[in-house]
Amino acid sequence: MCGICGIIDPAGRLAEAQKRETVARMNQALYHRGPDGEGNYASATAALAMRRLAIIDLGGGQQPIYNESGRIGVFLNGEIYNYRELRQQLRRSGHVFRTDCDTEVLVHLYEEHGTGMCALLRGMFSFCLYDLDADFFLLARDRFGEKPLYYHWDRGVLSFASEIRALLEYEGLDRRLRPEALPYYFRTSLVPEPLTLLRGVDTLLPGHYLTIERGKQTTAPYFELTYPEAMDFASEAAASEFIRPHLEKAVARQTVSDVPLGAFLSGGIDSSTVVALLQKQSSQRIKTFNVRFEEEAFDESPIARKVAEFWDTDHHEIVIPNRDFEEDIFWKIIDHVGLPFRDSSAIPTFQISREIRRHVTVALSGDGGDELFGGYQLFQWHDKILKLKEWARPLRLAGQRSLALAQQLPVVNKVSMLRKVQRAINTSLEERDAIPIALNEFYPLAEVRDLLEQQAFSSGLDFNLTALKRYPAGAENWSALRRIMYYRAVHTLPANMLVKVDRMSMANSLEVRAPFLDPDLFDAAAQLPDRLLIRGGKGKYLLRQIMAADLPPEVFNHPKQGFGIPLYKYQNQAFQQLAQRLLFEENPWPGLFPQALLRKYYDRGLQHQNDSARLSTFQSAHQLWMLMQLLGWAQRFNVQAN
Known about the structure:
The protein is an alpha+beta fold and about 650 residues long. It contains 23 helices and 17 strands. The strands form three sheets. Strands 2-3-1-9-8-10 form a six-stranded antiparallel beta sheet. Helix 6 (about 235-255) packs across helix 7 (about 270-280) and helix 9 crosses helix 23 (about 615-635). The longest helix is centred in the C-terminal third of the chain and has 27 residues, at about 480-505. It is globular, with a radius of gyration of 25 Å.
């Protein structure tokens, strides 16, 4: 586990000393990702570097690692879980290994398969491989985007890094806002990859590789997420027997480590499943970790405790009190994400990662379980809205008007339901492929237009968010459930969930692994029929059946909770003062957004302490948080608006 960075300059436009010095600064900015050591390579055409967090082969895994001739080298960020199987195959083909490190399989695999090597890897990774004889460079990223890779290509020079803060050490990068990303950010809080909010900075898409050969840069996929025709299982038991071995193997694969290992335990089905299978495979008590919130509605610690008792794990809890906001953590999120980040659960993720790192270097998580087994309530809302869409449009428009009137009344009871019904009707009036966008929106489209349309660049903005409506060939044959699952797996998972986990854990030099994102497990789960995913108003139906005997009943009987904080209760004086400074007193982009709208979101975000028929406390608090993150990011990294 590491951070990687570099400058690839095939034509030698930059002086070798300049490349070395710049990459040294880039690498220092990644120190937290790998405090155990560093590695470097430099020539007239490239300067590459890495920071190492030693996990496998502690004494022999220094990078770069070369093939037998010393002509092919590699820098790796992440883990290759199936490296032992690959090494056996490569040895049978005559390859000689000098270490017991997973990184070394990459150079030999490249010798055998070229760019086809990527499809053979099971792991979370981004890497840079270079072939000195061919003056060829290969960068690649894992299938689901667990490990990051940002890059900037300008006039034949490629700079890249695991984090944007490191990439910004490259002087050739123009620190300007990418306006076309703003509608995506405000509407859904996420910018779809490969775009970022920085002009000229892209992410290498999950499941893709990038090559540079003779000065030409190309990108191509080696994996594309798809859903084949569902298998026809003879019974639920047969489906369970099909999935369970893949689940067990996924957990077993990710226990490969030469350092202490533990697990997140929220009390939800996913993390509890990982803990149960991990403890079942371990001869010692595993360490488990849970966050306990003062806010009861957000606290799953009693259930986590029951799972820990059920499996007799070495359990640890950390408490997050309300009103405990400190400005320092706001800037830590921006520093490590390198972009504005809406998801306030980054705060508890950072805090629990810091605590876990005191005990272990590697922790397994339950991330990806909802994407594989249909766990999100959003999936069921999507189904309900499609059914509502079958109603005659005039009938829905009449309902929309009636509910708009009802929202004017001083309704006391069931205000949340009134708001949800109104939103459901509004969403049903969208075109089919825009429904996932509407279900994930933070700022309604009309408000996004109000924020941006007075700007000179607004005529070129895509308010329809076209990039979020693209589906691969064959998607017309998918079920509605699979289409919304695709949206979450391709857009939300890499741009939100995995960013949060990677950046907040690596900020604390902690490696987090996600067994549910094992490619073979994904391929198996992708063949399940919808009826085994959601049934009776509950998601993850088959996973519940598989794990019923291995977990206490409380895990299955409580409502699904996200790993979040009640942000509106987190707004202490330090929070309010920071918001005041960023939006008004020290706004780095004065005049970019209408002052009256900034005041509206500031006042509402701080004063809206109870759900209403029009607006939830979650939405009002996060609208303000998104503005704070955006303007804080611009201030921190000196990003110009135009």
